[in-house]
Amino acid sequence: MKARKEKFKEYTEKFKTMHDVFDDFTNRTIFKLMSEGRFRGLESPISIGKESNVFSALTNEGKRVIVKIYRLETCDFNRMYDYIKDDPRYTGLKDKKRKVILVWVQREYRNLMNARDAQVNVPIPIAFSNNILGLEFVGRNGSIAPKLKDSIPKNKKQFFDKIIDSIRKLYKAGLVHADLSAFNILNFDEAPVFIDMSQATILKHPRAEEYLERDVRNICIFFRKVGLKVNEKSTLRKIQK
Question: Cβ–Cβ contacts within 10 Å for residue 72, how many?
């Protein structure tokens, strides 16, 4: 136990100087997940998002995973609450900033599980605790799969059709991604992988259809820019039929 604590301290000291993530609450949560054997330590930073910092980590078996840490002090609470407030799965959160953030993590885990059940290609959720989410590492040879914006598919039409099919599967399962763009789709071996599912919204949400239209618009705009002729209205009809 002493050796594990020393190793934990080594990792947190290393990364707290680089990123404003490791408050005491987060440190305790990381140690809890390490003690449970979820991973043995953070490996390297991958990205800094709007609300979270993403790291790679290694399990005790040497398998690489993703550790997503939501920043408790700098998260956009109002944005998060706007998505959650009309979700009947989560009620009574008004003016409870920290609780909204913790529910946000649970929500992403749950949305990922639902997406997997709908046979949509998303990272496998491994575990969550407080403001930390563990995920499958999507990549090869230690390198994370590139985002669509950085890796134009060889067959644009086929890739586009796969994205629309995934949106349709989510829709049939009662979910809308609600923040879909070339920034949160990975291109892994010429197949799309949806990421950042925390804001995914059930169809009962009053703005679900608006979010769906925005998702389709973002994807169509991107593919038109790379030379593919696509139409938003006809694409939307394919999803909703």
Answer: 18
What is the pLDDT, as a whole number, of residue 93?
64
Residues 12 and 120 in one domain: yes
> Which of 86, 101, 136 is a domain's end point?
136
The yes-or-no answer on residue 179 being catalytic is yes
Instruction: Give 106-123 pLDDT, tens digit per residue.
Output: 989 999 999 999 999 999
The whole-model pTM stands at: 0.87
Q: Which residue of the set 82, 87, 117, 196 is catalytic?
A: 196
Question: Do 78 and 180 share a structural domain?
Answer: no
Residue 9: pLDDT over 90: no
For residue 46, give both structure tokens. 């991958």
CA-CA distances (angstroms) from residue 155 to 160, 190, 228? 9, 8, 10
User: Distance between CA 138 and CA 115 in Å, rounded?
Assistant: 16
Distance of CA 104 to the CA centre of its chain: 11
Determine which one of 86, 117, 179, 215 is catalytic.
179
Q: Which of 210, 227, 230 lies closest to 219, judged by CA?
A: 230
* CATH code of 20's domain: 3.30.200.20
